[in-house]
Write a structure and sequence with these properties.
This protein has nine helices and no strands. By secondary structure, the chain is mainly α. The protein has one domain. The termini are close together.
Length: 198
């Protein structure tokens, strides 16, 4: 919903995008990024506390895995977002996610973007460009919002676009999909995939 609304703003003629619409646009993309990472953290919590497949009901829940995970759920919840899934897979003696490929690489970048937004510090000039963030995003080739001045800093102005929001949503679906595959359970998204496709 947030990304679709941001896309509508980006499709307007640049001269008709007021300052209020620019603020709304940035807020929509920030909301999408924050929600996407929160969804990842919630999924790790659900798996650790209730077991893989718990959302499928008693017939789909891996009860043995739940017995192994639940005593360690509080410990898992205190780890970095991406590490929570690594630990869950390790406890259950499952294959680890390939850290050199997608969707892991995009998920690391997504969590980094959320952290930059959460701990944003307004800086001037060259300091505005967050080198690590800019380098990571340059490979994604996201189009900046068309109404952003070419001299604006990369983050947050050029970075927070509808392309970025779309990527965030897709990443927050593809990463859990891969985790479900490794856990050997059906993806939580199967029943709602048509509603989360952008």
């Amino acid at each position: 919903m947030f990304v679709r609304q941001a896309s509508k703003i980006e499709s307007m003629p640049s001269e008709s995008v007021t300052e209020a619409l620019r603020v709304e646009h940035r807020g929509l993309i920030v909301a999408a990024v924050m929600q996407c990472v929160a969804a990842l953290e919630t999924e790790a919590f659900e798996i650790a506390n209730h077991g893989p497949g718990s959302y499928l009901g008693s017939e789909g829940c891996d009860v043995e895995a739940q017995k192994l995970l639940s005593p360690l759920a509080e410990f898992v919840d205190k780890q970095r977002t991406i590490d929570r899934f690594r630990i869950i897979l390790q406890i259950l003696r499952k294959e680890q996610i390939d850290t050199s490929r997608e969707p892991y690489q995009s998920t690391i970048l997504l969590v980094g973007l959320r952290n930059e937004i959460t701990h944003f510090k307004s800086l001037w000039g060259q300091q505005i460009t967050r080198e690590k963030l800019s380098r990571g995003f340059s490979t994604l080739n996201h189009d900046p919002p068309p109404f952003i001045d070419e001299y604006s800093g990369y983050f947050p102005h050029k970075c927070l676009s509808a392309d970025c929001g779309t990527w965030a949503v897709r990443t927050s679906v593809s990463f859990p999909d891969e985790i479900y595959r490794l856990l050997g359970v059906q993806s939580r998204f199967e029943s709602v995939r048509d509603r989360i496709t952008i």
